Amino acid sequence: MQIKPILTAMRHHKAGTVLIALQIALTLAIVCNALFIIQQRTARMSRPSGVDEANLFVIRSDWTDKSDAQRIDAQMQADLIALRQLGSVQDAAPTNSFPLRGSGWDNFIKLQPDQVKMTTDAAMFFSDDHTLATLGTHLIAGRNFTASEIGAQRPRDAMHAAQVIISKDLARRLYPDGSVLGKTIYVSMGRGPATVIGITDTLQAHMISSWANAYAYNAVLVPARLLNDYTYYLVRARPGQLDAAMRDAPKALYAQSRMRIIDRKDGVMSFAQVRQRAYERDLGMAILMGIISVVLLAITAAGIVGLTSFWVGQRRKQIGVRRALGATRGDILHYFLTENLLIGFGGVLVGAVLAIGINLWMVTQFEMARLSLVYVVSGVVVLLLLGQGAVLGPALRASRVSPVEATRSV
C-alpha cells in the first residue's frame, strides 16, 4: 500500500481530516484523565478502615440539657453499662469521632516540645478501655488503657494525655527505624509529653478529604470521655445480630433517660452507611467520569463512521476506476483502514501531549497524583483500535463497489 496517494487525498479533505484528528486528540486527553480519576477514586473507596465494619454501628445522642457536665458524664457511663448488657451487643464505647466520619479533632504531632513544624498530623479519638474491642482493632504492641486511666474533659479544656495509643502507620511515620513504644510524643500542641503505651494495627483516621491522604492512617487514641453537647457511642454487635442490636440500642438509651435526642434519619448508622457517606462524592465522580468517557468514545466512533461514509460516497467514481484497473477488494479495504490509521496517529500524538498537560494542571490545582504513562499508552491503543473498528463498516461497503456499477457514471 502506497502512502503518498492517501496523503494526497487527505490534503484534498483538510477540514474533515483535521477535525476528526482533533476529536481523537481531545477524546484521548479527557478519557485518559477520566480513567485515571476513576482509578484514584476507586482506590480511595476500597481503603480498609481497620475496624469490624460488618458488626459496627454508631449512635449519636444529643443532650437536651447541656449545662451540667458532671450529669452528662454520669449519664454516659450509665448508657455504656446499659448498652454492654444487651444480648445482641458485644461491646460499646464513647468517642468524639470515628474512622471515616469526615470531621473531628486532629492535632499536629511533634517529637520535641520546642519543635516549630509538625512531624505529622493525626486524628484524635477519645477512647476508653473498651474502644479497641468495640472497633475490632487489635494491638500489635504494648497494652490497652486501664479503666483508672480514663478521664473526662469538656471541649474547651486544654487536652493533655499522659498515655496514648497510636496506629502502626503513625508509629512508622514518627520512628521509621525503631519502636516508638515507651517514648514520648507531643499530641496536644506542646502542652506536655505523652507516653506511647500501645500500637494498634491498621486504623483509619476520620479525615477523608484529598488534602489528608498523607495522614489517612494516622490515629491517636486518648484516654478520655469528651463531655460535649452530644456524644457518639460506638457499638459492636455480636456476629449476625447487627440489625437486632441497632433496634435494641436506642431503646436501651431512652430507657436510661428521655433527656436526649437521637435523630430518626441518621442518629443510628451502620458502618456500611458511614462508609457510603464518606465516599459518596468519590462514587459520584467515578460514575460521572465513566459516563463522560463512554459518551466521548461513542461520539468519536460515530464521527469516524460518518466521515468515512461521506468520503466513500464522494469517492465512488475513484473506487470504481481503481477496481476497473485491477484493484482488489482488499486493496480498497486497506486504503481506508490505512487512511484512518494515519489520521488516528496524528490525533493520538496530539492527544498524548494534551493528556499529560491536563494532568499537570490538575496536579497543581487539585493536588492530584501524576498521570501514569500506562493510561496514556492504553488510551492510544484503545483509540486506534476504536478508529479501525469504526472505519471497518464503511471500508467494507467501499470494497464491495463493483467496477461496472461505479464506472456507469464515468
Q: Which helices and strands occur, and which strands form pairs?
A:
Elements: H1 3-12, H2 14-45, E1 56-63, H3 69-84, E2 89-95, E3 106-109, E4 120-127, H4 131-135, E5 139-142, E6 151-153, E7 163-167, H5 168-174, E8 184-185, E9 194-200, E10 219-226, E11 230-237, H6 242-256, E12 260-261, E13 268-270, H7 271-278, H8 280-314, H9 316-324, H10 329-366, H11 373-399, H12 403-407
Parallel strand pairs: 4-10, 6-10, 7-9
Antiparallel strand pairs: 1-11, 1-12, 1-13, 2-11, 3-4, 5-9, 7-10, 8-9
Structural description of this entry:
The chain is of the alpha+beta class and 410 residues long. It has twelve helices and 13 strands. It has helices spanning 3-12, 14-45, 69-84, 131-135, 168-174, 242-256, 271-278, 280-314, 316-324, 329-366, 373-399, 403-407; strands at residues 56-63, 89-95, 106-109, 120-127, 139-142, 151-153, 163-167, 184-185, 194-200, 219-226, 230-237, 260-261, 268-270. Strands 3, 4, 5, 6, 7, 8, 9 and 10 form an eight-stranded mixed sheet that branches. Strands 1, 2, 11, 12 and 13 form a five-stranded antiparallel sheet that branches. A hairpin with an 8-residue loop joins β8 and β9 (194-200). α2 (14-45) runs antiparallel to α8 and α10 (329-366) packs antiparallel against α11 (373-399).
